[in-house]
Hints:
- Helices cover 28% and strands 33% of the residues.
- The protein has 435 residues and is an alpha+beta fold.
Amino acid sequence: MSFTRNSCDVVIAGAGIAAAATALRLCALGFRPLMLARTCRDLPGVEAIPSAAVPLFVELGAEDILYEAGAALIEGFENHWNPEEPSLRSGYWIHVERGRLAKAAVREAVKRGARFRTCQSLPTLREDPDCVCIDGDGASLRFEVAIDATGRSAAWSRPIRRRGTQVADVYDVLPDGKALSGKIVLQSGGWAYRIGVADRTTVGMLSQAKKERYFPDALTEKALCLSSGSCSFIGRRPAFAQWAENPVQGRRIAVGDAALAYDPLAGQGIRFALSSAITASSVVNTWRSTQSQAGAAERFYRKYVIRCRESHFRFMDQLEAKSPPSEQRAETIPELVTFSGESVRADLQFDSNIRADQAFLLPDGECVRWIGEIDLLSLRNSLPQTIRSSDLVDRLGVATGGRQKAQTVMRWCLQNNILREAASEPGKHETSLGK
């Protein structure tokens, strides 16, 4: 890359889905991002994205990149983590080859105004009080902000910390023209998964780091429904949890795996890449538009990454104890409810900005203002002190798109003390809705 006159205000290191998602969001906010990508080959592989990540693609206006990347919508995921009690997880997953998805996202970001350049190695990042600079070819370019989206290398976000030594030996499987549901199996030496689209299937063999390759044996081939000898080795990649000690510092923010790389067993890597891109963009926008909230924006992002990491570790601890999180028992919805949550002032994200405002305090110390499109505080202020649950479900159903989702929101609010049962009228009894 040749450094000449700079016409961009944000520099993004990386060319994966986190980098492209950040560029897409920043373009929508009026920024001019420059994406810098190293000329190196990434390890290919098919991944399964939970359907819960789809709203993030929609928020970025990027759902079409899934079709461009040849994604397949697959129902169910076979879970053999407990061999004695195998199960088929209900719901939908999007299977997509990660390299195709990243390239489609980068192309879309360039269409929307981002610039894309390749380089043999990333330039050194230098931070000044009010800007960041990159140097090369005897020139220096200044930017308002630098985004580190370099994945596990975290090139601009050292030091990093790790949990575990797990690695994945990745294999290509001869295509059979079918996209089957994903499958995970637990084995004596580790665990394995199979995820595929019509023209490519990926098998990952995960184990603690060792020199010997972890190869699919006859038992694994049978468990994953593979033809004998159909797997060809394509590479090894780290698969342990990893995080940057300082995901935001000065004018530099880490997103995606550079901020927090999930253990692949959680299946949340791409979802976090999108979510962190959106959140980091709100921080950047706040730094530009509302200088008085700069500190709040930095605190918000730091706490956001910590919260995601701690939630991930709780999930992994349960799995390692071979006691996967049990499904929550449906909360019985009382006939009458009242808002009981304590409102406090907290740093919040909305309208692509971070600012301090009122929110509900949750039992774990976190704060919440919105559930999807529902402003809980505005909802509380617009309702009578006591309301029939059926009436509240009807009202929430308009905002959530259905009665079932509205009941889910109500149960969550009851579990987190935002709502509580109100005194019943004489002769009335609790009703259990939606069973």
